[in-house]
Fold:
Amino acid sequence: MSSSRPPSASKITKPPSRPPSASQNTNVSTGPRISSASSRLRATQNNLSFEVNAEQKAQDRIRTQSDDEREQFIINVFHETFGDAIRNNEDAFRSRFRKMAENPFNFYRGSAVLFYYDLKIDQDPWIARNQLAGNIFIHGDLHAENFGTYMDSHGILHFDVNDFDEGYCGPFTWDVKRLLASLYIVAYTKGFSNDTIRQILTRYADTYVKQVYEFCNSSKDQLPLTLKQTTGKIQLLLKETRIQSHVEHLAKMTVIENYERKFKRSIYTDVDAQLYKDINDAFQTIYLESIPEPKKNIQGPSGSNVSCSIKDIVKCSSKGIGSAGAESYTILLEGPTEALENDIVLSMKQALPSAVSCVVKNSELEKYFEHHGLRTVLCSYAMQASTPQWLGYTTLHGKHYLVDEVSTHSKGLSWSNINDLKDILEVVTYLGKVTAKIHCVADSDCTNLPKNLSSLPLSIIPRDTETTIRDAIGGQDDEFINDMVNFGMTYGKQVYRDHRIFSDAVINDRISRLEKKE
Structure:
């Protein structure tokens, strides 16, 4: 990250030196593995690095900024966050910025760091009431397209949140607000009125609160959203995922030559012999150690374990808007049998710092999150009902990498065919349940954590965050829902303004240079 001074905004009040005390009725269970490290971590949770008692709400402060002030703030944020990376790979970021300029939703997806700088100084009575609710695992980039299907290590298809690259610890309200603003963009794009959009956003927020309370009052072992527990568009998505063919999936990426499978060089790039060896070493050592033993020992149809023998490695371009300049490799593994039809494809992509970490500063937490691949894996374990079999991390040439399967049975939620209000309301109901789940339910595999995760104090993965969130809401359900929805409506409109300002800056080359302001 650049060493330039942090972004400034007009009319921002200085945070008080001592934040208000948190509620004492949080009932956070730390379990049997208490350590001095976990005690220190909890102590720091009463000293937030962001303001929650500002004179104005963040969205109201932003609206008072002129277009010129807002443009300069956006440029400052991007310079502070991406300045060095842009100078190292201008072409990648030029492509990223052009994708962001295409439409408001793309801009929103690619500007998570702006969202958190906006919320760094806010009036958030819910976190002010219980500051422990400002330090739970959050997704970090919870927007309307970061949901989809995946198959867990037991072969069960789930509908859940995906892409934990921005996962971190922070206020639960940030996830709720970020998703609500994205739902505004989706609904506005589809031509719904403000009243109808408010109805959609209210359904999501209301479902979230009810599901949190349900976790408080009953067993929260899991909230599986599988073929049997879903209906409508979400069940259809799971059914479409179920019928996808692994052989056809492999055929999109590979060819068979001389009776052996290899990647298509027409769409991928070769790696040289030394890089091939280095990737293989990183895979066979750090990565395999990051996989829990029960997941490594899952057998194929022949009764044999997957060999973890690498057959081919290629370099590929990172597709995500937020992955500009990140290195990415694709690995072909021998499957559980010698038959070519069950070979396995893994993605090994560079893990970058979370956008949330630009605002949340916690020295104890940062020790555990120093490796961005490990952080992403830990956040996945904390928030998913059950994690994928091949999820792990490694290090290559001093850079952090996340490894996961390029799965046949992974399909993202698309809004292109979700247009009727009835369908949208049903879908956002599921999104509300899933959001509550990721905040409240720890992974059922937590007793089988990878070696480098099992040494973490158990308080890093909170056991009773549902009561923490409940105490933050404090029985003011309607007020909380209205507050969240009002933010979603206001900030969603702000995204359209920001997109216009950003696009003009891109066209006139005022962002790509990112010249430092002294």
Notes: Residues 1-45, 514-518 have pLDDT under 50 and may be disordered. The chain has two domains: 49-242+417-512, 243-405.
